[in-house]
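Thought: the user asked what DUF4395 domain-containing protein looks like in 3D. I have the sequence; next I should run the structure tool and report back without guessing.
Action: structure_tool
Action Input:
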Amino acid sequence: MGATSCDGRAPADGRRVYARGRPHRQGRQTTLAQQSSAPRPAGIDPRGPRFAAAITAVLILLGTFLALLGPAVRTGTTLAERIADPGFLVLLAVDLLFVWGFASPHTAPWGVLFRTAVRPRLAPPSELEDPRPPRFAQIVGFVVVTIGIVLHVVGVPWALPVAGAAAFIAAFLNAVFAFCLGCQIYLLLLRAGLIRTRGGALVGA
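Observation:
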């Protein structure tokens, strides 16, 4: 849910940081040192996640707007009304796209669209970036939207638009300012030893 690092900043010498999830301090815990020396997956064009975030932000904004007009903000609605809510259907589609994004990022539709229609028209990136933080950001987006969807289905008013608004803010920050909130969460969890990486995949601590 950046063109340089997770927060969009580049080092003073103009080189982009590739391994955003790599610890930078000496003397860290042994597990983190092992992670930093482990093989890293192939880098990705940093403009791809921002392109996907822009499309995602538009879809989430549409779903949130529709949710504000429907039964998602009312009490006493039936299950059929809540499921037929256009805002619910749009955000459900976004949620499924989040799953696609972290389960099979190479076949996710926005990534394919970027590689086939957008990237050929752009100059090559000066540096590639670690795909693991953006992939983790997809998981964060999925969790946020799923919470709103589940609460909406069981009849909690305002749960759907609130979750949609939170997901929109994250996608908007990534698309416009190259600030990946999910990537920042990834770094915090990695440095705390709560997640580990193994062959490019994310595993629990």
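Thought: the tool returned a structure. Summarizing for the user.
Final Answer: Structure for DUF4395 domain-containing protein predicted. The chain has one domain: 42-204. Residues 42-204 form one domain.
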